[in-house]
Amino acid sequence: MEGMAPSISRWNKSDKLAHVLYDIRGPVLAEAQRMEDEGHRILKLNIGNPAPFGFDAPEEIQQDFIHELPHAQGYSDSKGILSARRAVVQHYEERGVEGFDVDRVYLGNGVSELIVMAMSALLNNGDEVLIPSPDYPLWTAAVSLSGGTPRHYICDEANEWLPDLDHIRAKITPRTKTIVPVHLFGQCADMKPIMELAAKHTLFVIEDNCQAIGSDYVVENDAPRKAGTIGDIGVTSFFPSKNLGCYGDGGAIFTNDDETAKRLRQVCNHGSEVRYYHDVVGVNSRLDSMQAAVLRIKLRRLDEYGRARQQAAATYDEAFGGLEHVHVPERSADSSHVFHQYTLRITGGHRDALRAHLEKHGVPAMIYYPVPLHMQKAYEGYGIRKGDLPITERLMDEVLSLPMSTELDNEQLTHITNAVKSYFAT
Q1: Using one digit for the tens of pLDDT, what is the confidence trace for 157-198?
Q2: 117 HSE (CA, 13 A, CB side)
């Protein structure tokens, strides 16, 4: 109709997206799709999906899933299916974790949404959140979208790459609201000094336990604490490649504080406690019944999965122990390691050549993460330039993660270790 041109052309991107970046869903993915359209076969190593690499679900899991299907239909409670939440609580109670019940566990259809919900419930505009570097984009994006300001702290090379307490302390300002320790690759950060520092400055602690579910944290003669249950809030992911993964996507958020649980419950249910009465602005993120059925079954085997990964890591350790330029993962005396990833440091400038060598031998190896966030276009506005975080930048040139799965067998492990050793033998 004349005079009714579409108004969409006048819309500009929200300023909130200025610091949100998921490059794998941008130009890299667009180029992959273009090549697929031309007939090329693209192996998308970034997806975290074990199926393309031959890691199929065990037959017993598939049969249990079929058995549960009749009980996994229809809508679930906004906090997640009750039986699945009970299974989570029972799992931790059996391992000595106290202080939370089914009303303090929230299951959603993805940990990203749950983290954004938590940030929305806790942050006012301008509040600062301390996040480790290197960092996956999720936390920086979630804080930015919720009106907060992410501040990155470094990890201590001399202390198993755990959070650098001195750098965290130096980053605290009157606007600081939260510290986020990330239990990277399967090992728990040193939580005791972090909790003491947070208590001194009255800060929230939100544990990112997406990669370390099942890990134990022990301080001196204290009883073990499970990673993700020590801070004010713990979050974990059920993405298929995680140690406890569903068949699609999902996540969980935990707290042992009633007031925090109430605020999260409202945000997770459209801001409502009483149906159709909305006290705050909220959203909705349910873990669907099918995924809950899978997780309820697999949760029983979580400790078994952890042991399988530890055995695979021990095989890697033994194979690479004497190789120059190959540094196996550090182990903390305060934490068990459940090896979501087995990440080597390859020094001497050999990383990229080794990765190419492994690819020729049919071994996928990943770099987590190839470009630090402070060097990404989306974060230019923070004023952090190349050279300001030298440890992060050096790690991005050295880290290489080998295949790690509960289902790795001796034949596969032998092939992988021989491929690595053959590169250094030439």
Answers
A1: 777 778 889 999 999 999 999 999 999 899 999 999 999 999
A2: 35
